[in-house]
Amino acid sequence: MELPSLLLCVLLKVLAVNCEVENILIVAGDYSLSIYEGTEQEILPKIVVPHPEYNSTTNNNDIMLVKLKAPVYLNSYVSIALLPRHGATIPEGRMCRVSGWGYTSPSGGQIPSTLRTVKLPIVSTQKCNSSESFDGDITENMLCAGYSIGGKDACQGDSGGPLVCEGRVYGIVSWGRGCGEAQYPGVYAAVAKYRRWIDNTIFSYYSRCNNHN
Ligand SMILES: *[C@@H]1O[C@H](CO)[C@@H](O)[C@H](O)[C@H]1NC(C)=O
Ligand SMILES: *[C@@H]1O[C@H](CO)[C@@H](O)[C@H](O)[C@H]1NC(C)=O
């Protein structure tokens, strides 16, 4: 069964602090990276807006907006994932789905050619930030998800991908320690903390260049 392709990359993780606009290509409607399926839409970015308070040491505010040069056409391969309302919370234990083309094993190896996905429960910030886990490195702008026994997780190459809960992108794959380790769930940028910033940023660009955007 083919997985529904996700419209990834509307929200991209900051890949590098100085990431050049020219080095990004947004692809919608992709499933297999190794074959051309005819469903792909490739679009260049027009503007990238990293979060002004992104901290590469702590990974705090690990979020970036990308305005595309051209529209993406919605069809059965490309659809919209909604954003949560500002400040919306998702309770511990709620199941969410993360997707990506990242490593399927903590030791790396070959990356998968097709989009992979896994369902994971939300871990409370209290547990995730405790001395048994990330020991104080979790900020209020982060969200944790994973099983207490580990085994299922996002991994290298999944960064920037969506963590979807109740049909909304509550998280963006950000960081972790290893992959699938029992003690360390995956850490995500908590999108609901940024909804106001996202809306304000989009609106300010529209109002600044309201002719041909
Ligand atoms: C990043 O966070 C660390 C720890 O809070 C802080 O010491 C540092 O100054 C911050 N860096 C930037 C660029 O804000
Ligand atoms: C995580 O723990 C550190 C150290 O105790 C604390 O400064 C920080 O506020 C905690 N994060 C959250 C979201 O409570």
UniProtKB/TrEMBL annotation:
Enzyme class, broadest EC rank: hydrolase
Domain Peptidase S1 positions: 14-203
EC numbers for this chain: 3.4.21.4
CDD domains: Tryp_SPc
Coiled-coil residue windows: none
Keyword Disulfide bond assigned: yes
Keywords of the record: Disulfide bond, Hydrolase, Protease, Serine protease, Signal
Chemical reaction(s) catalysed: Preferential cleavage: Arg-|-Xaa, Lys-|-Xaa
Gene Ontology terms describing biological process: proteolysis
SMART domains: Tryp_SPc (SM00020)
Record has Signal as a keyword: yes
Gene3D superfamilies: Trypsin-like serine proteases
Subcellular location: Secreted, Extracellular space
Residues annotated as transmembrane: none
Listed InterPro entries: Peptidase_S1_PA, Peptidase_S1_PA_chymotrypsin, Peptidase_S1A, Serine_Proteases_S1, Trypsin_dom, TRYPSIN_SER
Signal peptide feature range: 1-16
GO CC annotation: extracellular space
Molecular function in Gene Ontology: serine-type endopeptidase activity
Family named by the database record: Belongs to the peptidase S1 family. Snake venom subfamily.
PANTHER family per record: TRYPSIN-LIKE, TRYPSIN-RELATED
Protein name per the record: trypsin
Species in which this protein is naturally found: Xyrichtys novacula (Pearly razorfish)
Record lineage: Eukaryota, Metazoa, Chordata, Craniata, Vertebrata
